[in-house]
Specification:
Layout (H helix, E strand, L loop, with lengths): L1 E8 L3 E2 L5 E2 L2 E8 L9 E5 L8 H4 L16 E5 L31 H15 L4 E7 L1 H12 L4 E7 L7 H16 L12 H15 L2 H8 L11 H14 L4 H12 L10 H6 L4 E7 L7 H10 L3 E6 L7 H4 L1 H14 L8
Parallel strand pairs: 5-6, 5-7, 7-8, 8-9, 9-10
Antiparallel strand pairs: 1-4, 2-3, 4-6
Helix pairs in contact: 2-3, 4-5, 4-8, 5-7
The structure holds acetyl coenzyme *A (ACO) and L-homoserine.
Length: about 350
């Protein structure tokens, strides 16, 4: 029932920057079947390093008997443009030259990513979306889309995200890109260029994805006798290695820049006016201890959107709690449907 597909867009695609891509492809995953009324669509937007297989990184939400059940819903998620899981990105061959884009891949924004989703949606003939869900960068994209197409979405669920990427978030991303830049291989046009720098970038990022409390609870030494070779140190190294086995520095660079450029108010006369466009019933969930997308950012969103609720998940994990606190997140979404008297389950 879980199926992978490819959408090819063979025409020139204009980016927000004014630059163009000579077409693109999106690799996407679906789970379940579209019903006759075409009203059972659940669209998921993935975060920075995740992929279109939502059952891998949000396993508790999707499956038979779960909140989003493939016997009732048609769940879809596309790998974002610029990524490295099958959609067009910096390692894809540039049809204009026949060799991978590498450093020549143009800068993209969340709005560009959403425009590719919109082309896919049209191609599939989906003219209503029951619920769109996204966390972190995926939440930024879900928000962009519900602003751009207010009549398309019935419900919007956003976790640990924001209306505009914060100065703090940009500073973290820039520091990570500086680490990539320091890697002497970064200038090369090879798949592994900048990979050691990216390992450091991931280690830096982890400091913003977790919290003081997380490290305290999971990486503290058990004895007073240690004076080198700390658990916290090997954890940082390991996390860099782990990402390097499934990602590349070009995509890391492009997507972190896309995140930095996130501002729903751009060319829409400001954030407040942009958020007023949203017609969907909205749920914003913040994660306690999230230093990267602090709960005040989700509270702000809820305040500026009609029909919005705001909840906080108590967590010791910080930002990554949006991927880890599955049962608490499921409860919040169930409650949202119940309070709004909405039917999450369609038959
Ligand atoms: C569910 C998935 O991970 S799907 C895989 C793709 N992931 C995605 O697409 C979404 C993004 N995912 C993520 O960001 C992360 O996977 C999270 C947030 C979901 C979970 O993070 P994790 O890194 O798995 O958890 P955590 O921080 O507890 O680290 C555990 C790993 O660190 C290792 N580790 C823990 N402490 C130490 C230490 N002191 N020194 C070295 N290694 C350590 C563990 O052995 C474990 O290794 P493993 O992942 O190879 O089993
Ligand atoms: N752990 C998340 C963090 C960004 O939200 C990821 O790697 O995508």
């Amino acid at each position: 029932m879980l199926a992978n597909h490819l959408f090819e867009y063979p025409h020139e695609f204009k980016l927000e920057s004014g630059k163009t891509l000579p077409g693109f492809q999106l690799a996407y995953t679906t789970y379940g079947e579209l019903n006759k009324e075409k009203n059972n669509v659940v669209w998921v937007c993935h975060a920075l390093t995740a992929n279109s297989d939502f059952t891998e990184w949000w396993p508790d939400l999707f499956g038979p008997g779960k909140l989003y059940d493939p016997t009732k819903h048609f769940v879809i998620c596309a790998n974002m443009l610029g990524g490295c899981y099958g959609s067009t990105g910096p390692l894809s061959p540039n049809p204009r030259t026949g060799v991978p884009f590498f450093h020549s891949f143009p800068q993209i924004t969340n709005r560009d990513v959403v425009n590719t989703f919109e082309l896919l949606r049209n191609d599939l003939g989906l003219d209503q979306i029951h619920t769109i869900l996204g966390g972190s960068m995926g939440g930024q994209q879900a928000l962009e889309w519900t602003i751009e197409k207010p009549d398309l979405f019935e419900n919007l669920v956003i976790v640990a995200s924001n209306a505009k990427h914060s100065a703090w978030g940009i500073a973290f991303n820039e520091t990570q890109r500086q680490a990539i830049k320091q890697d002497l291989t970064w200038k090369l046009n090879t798949e592994r260029a900048g990979l050691n720098g990216m390992k450091v970038a991931r280690a830096i990022a982890l400091l913003s994805y977790r919290s003081h409390l997380t490290y305290d609870l999971t990486q503290s030494e058990e004895t007073d006798e240690v004076f080198d070779g700390y658990k916290a140190s090997s954890y940082q190294v390991y996390q860099g290695e782990k990402l390097a086995s499934r990602f590349n520095a070009f995509t890391y660079w492009i997507l972190s820049k896309a995140m930095d450029s996130h501002n729903v108010g751009r060319k829409r006369e400001g954030i407040a006016k942009a958020l007023k466009q949203i017609k969907a019933n909205a749920l914003f969930v913040g994660i306690d201890n999230d230093v990267l997308f602090p709960v005040k950012e989700q509270e702000f969103l809820a305040k500026h959107i009609e029909n919005a609720s705001f909840h906080v998940i108590d967590s010791k994990y910080g930002h990554d709690g949006f991927l880890i606190e599955m049962s608490k997140l499921t409860e919040k979404i169930q409650l949202f449907y119940k309070q709004k008297k909405l039917k999450p389950v369609l038959v």
